[in-house]
Amino acid sequence: MKESVATIFQTRFLTFQQQAQQLQKKYNLLSGIRIIFFLAAIIGIVYLANARLTNWFIGILVLSVVGFVVLVIRHQRIKWQLDHTQRLATINGEETERLNYRLHAFDAGLVYQDPIHAYSGDLDVFGEHSLFQLINRSTTQKGKGFLADWLQHPADKQEVELRQNAVQELSPQIDWRQSQQAHSRVVDTKAEDIQELLKWVVTPAALANQKLYRLVQAGLAIVTVVTIGLSMTGLIHWYIPLLLIVVNLSVIGSKAKVAEEVHQQTNRHVASLKAYRYMMEGVEKHSFQSPRLQLLQSNLLQSGRSASQYVKELEYILSNFDSRANVLYHVFNAILLLDIYWLLRADRWKAAASNQVAGWLNSMGEIEAINSVASFTFAQPEFTFPVISNERHHILAEAMGHCLIPPTQRVNNNFGMEGRGAINVITGSNMSGKSTFLRTVGTNVVLALMGAPVCAQRFEVGVMQVFTSMRTQDSLEENVSSFYAELRRLRQLLTMLEAPRLPVLFMLDEILKGTNSHDRHHGAASLIKQLSKLEASGFVSTHDLELGKLADELSRVHNYSFTSTIEGDEIIFDYKLYEGVCQSFNASKLMEKMGIAIEQ
User: Fold this and answer.
1) Has residue 369 been placed in a domain?
2) What are the 10-residue block averages of pLDDT along the chain, 600 residues in total?
3) What predicted TM-score, i.e. pTM, was given to this entire model?
4) 566 and 427 together in one domain
5) Dihedral over alpha carbons 531, 535, 538, 543 (to 10 degrees)
């Protein structure tokens, strides 16, 4: 099945590349036609003007302007299609990179990293070769934000099942998903720019007395155009329209600062609005079956007009306002008071839609996050959707592996855990897979409780809060040793358990490794006994075989192990989980392989 998915992406990549090449040829041809048409029109207009053929001159002038506008619109449409097709080719090329676990080029989500988060640092949620890189297909800050939040916070059973349903619906719809993704890539992804546009949307009206300014703009524009026409026929003196233009300029000048501020706040967002419009249209016109997608779609269709229609209008207003950078705009501005007209249109738009914009963007962000998980699901057909159990502290996994390890290197294990206070002590030799197994369980629980499929043939899990202590490090800046850093992490766990919002699934790797063997054993045993009495269950990995004896004392403690075998000078790992305490260790052999002479 994996090969067929790879073939799908490769075929689509080649198809879109070929389409892009054809569109590029059309684009280049039309560029040449525009140049030839422009030169021919100039020559014809000049010739007819010199020949004083007035009727022909007017006719050719009108036809030239109309023809050139049509060519420009057609040229822009082909350019949009070309860019969209190139983005689709890039998306399918990126999917191939993900299938091969080459993730370094993708957004690592570093902005979402939290050093005190319950598990994200230890489970590679963000950063290089992370879950975020493997799953995320979102471009907008809203889409990435939703996905990051889902990765960091377990949802309840009902919410998980709603997300699963939405993801399962979108997963096979590759054309729709990738089209949405391609449109999103036009959106300006700088958070500060998005906030700048949102900030402008909710600002008060630029023109306080709307009725007065509408009357002034329309009246002066009409009178100015009429007097210009009359002066050209000689019926009135030319200084009358000139006087009106001076009046117009004084009205425009009174709001010139406001117009310039609006232009500066909005001129970078026209392309983004066009992209959002296409994305919204894609959602509004699509037929959804899942309740969550239907709800998000309804958020875009609540008012008499759809969100995409409002956004299209704003795109039109701001694109015309952006013409202030053109000298010709200011010529017509002096006659038609364009600044006032577009300010009035913008104010009217804000009055009708400003209180809905945040909701629209949130809905689109959530759909984008669902789209990401659906794309991840399509790319991993061997993964399965978990069953979310009503039982607390429940995990049942068959053929469970780590999703960030390529299938050719991945070793799967079965595992089951049931009930409050269940503690799994995992012993094993160095490099045998203890830490990887903890991350495998934790990662799959995180995936399950965000609504994604998991790397397993079967997976059941209750809603739990994962907590890890695996990569504690010293800090020169804070004058903190690695041992004290681990103690602070354990204190964080105990604080969480004082008033747990959810049952806690903890994962403690190489517990209390920063102290002597006597203190390590005594402290670890005491902590395990304390945790077994709280609203928690989990894993403790250790080299301390004596901790395995706690299973004789506490019925909720279970021993598991990873092992290795030594054949000649080679250490063989099978990375399989076994019941019981580990009976083989390889530290001496590893040191020998590193050139350290071990006395016999």
Assistant:
1) no
2) 82 96 94 89 82 77 84 89 96 96 95 94 96 96 96 97 98 97 84 77 85 92 89 81 91 90 84 90 96 96 88 92 82 91 93 91 96 98 96 95 95 94 87 90 98 98 95 53 80 90 92 69 85 89 82 87 73 86 60 50
3) 0.89
4) yes
5) 0
